[in-house]
Amino acid sequence: MADTSGTLKSIERLKREKRNAKTRLTRERNKLYELLSTTKASKNTIRRYISKIKSEFLIIEKLLNKLKEMFIFERIPESETEVEKIEREIDEIDNQVDVIIEAAETHLKERLEGGELESITPSGSTHSEYEIQQSETEAANKRVLTLQAEENQKEEELQRKAVELELAKQRTDEARKIVCIIDARSHNTTPKTAHDSDETCSHSQLPQQVILPSFHGNKPPNLF
Known about the structure:
Elements: H1 2-36, H2 43-73, H3 79-113, H4 129-186, H5 194-202
């Protein structure tokens, strides 16, 4: 029961992390749409938002895949329905990201073909596509590692609490048996085993009243 409870809590935590990541993704996507609608935005700024959107999508995708694995391997009720919902959600978010990324890359291409110079970083070098991809991957991996560390810590706490609860139950059972043994001794019916003590405690030690049949007259009736 403790394992099931821990699994459900892990699922809820992953869903919460996914919702937070989707909120960040929506914010970055809306900001990028805003940047694309103005000519004042620098090309490097647009590239940074492209990188942020890709990183958030990678995080969401990994969280959703982790959720899908838990539903499949932990045999959660209605897991097939949940897995289908997760797969649809991944496809939906992927399509939304593809649309905004394609629009941003087209925007940059048109500006460069229109005669604008490439944006220059303070160090004097341009942002290469490889550097942008590396930055995206590193940011996403760091975020996933952070989420995994938090997950492991919370799972360890749940396991520790489950062990403490089990020990508390055992101590309570042992204390109850001791009380039963003491109570049985006070009635001179000391149980021989722990099982006997449980049976002794489950039955009342009070003497029961015996009801004898009543007779008409001074003598009992002749039964022969």
